[in-house]
Amino acid sequence: MPDRHLLTPRTLDDMLLYAMWHLQTSAGQVVTRVVEGEFGVTRRQWRVLALLATHEGVLSSQLAERSGLDRAQTSRALTLLADKGLVERTPRPSDRREVLLHLSEAGRALYAALLPRIIEINRQLLSTLRADEVLALEGFLQRLQRQAEAMNAPMRRTQQPP
């Protein structure tokens, strides 16, 4: 791996976001082999399924926001998960045009079987760091997330309807 110059980037390889994307892509290939090869769902479907496991009863638009996917991608993932019998859609009592999303029993079973495998991949990835380094990384990621949100705030304000 080349030496990075995050504070004084000279090339794409020196950019933080590119380095993080590259890490996510490399580690994500391991996740893809597990979720697709062994469990028959895509990484996108796994993301939606995992988020739904901890945020049941949400609307598709709320799930899209949490997952970082656009509404069309989320809708496609949910349709495929519903076709596989992993997700159930229940009309909202106050507005039957909206549906609340829940995992089916099969969806809960898949999540329970798959989550430990993904946790192990996460553990293996972090195993190269000492415990104090992992704690520092958690703090760094939180600070970077807050900074990214602050950088996006002016754009969100200008995109809101009058």
Structure in words:
This protein is mainly alpha-helical. The chain has one domain (12-121, 129-157): Orthogonal Bundle (Arc Repressor Mutant, subunit A), CATH 1.10.10. It has six helices and two strands; from the N terminus they run ααααββαα. The chain has helices spanning 16-39, 43-54, 60-67, 71-83, 105-126, 131-159; strands at residues 87-92, 95-103. A two-stranded antiparallel ribbon has the order 1-2. Helix 1 (16-39) packs across helix 5 (105-126), helix 2 (43-54) crosses helix 4 and helix 3 packs across helix 4. The protein is globular. The mean pLDDT is 91.
Mean pLDDT: 91
Helix % is: 55-70%
CATH homologous group name: Winged helix-like DNA-binding domain superfamily/Winged helix DNA-binding domain
**CATH third-level topology:** Arc Repressor Mutant, subunit A
The structural domain count equals 1
- CATH level-two architecture: Orthogonal Bundle
Task: List key phrases describing it.
162 residues, mainly alpha, Arc Repressor Mutant, subunit A, two-stranded antiparallel ribbon, 6 helices, 2 strands, 67% helix, 9% strand, globular
Topology:
Blueprint: H1 16-39, H2 43-54, H3 60-67, H4 71-83, E1 87-92, E2 95-103, H5 105-126, H6 131-159
Antiparallel strand pairs: 1-2
Helix pairs in contact: 1-5, 2-3, 2-4, 2-5, 3-4
Short description:
The chain is mainly alpha-helical and 162 residues long. The chain is built from six helices and two strands, in the order ααααββαα.
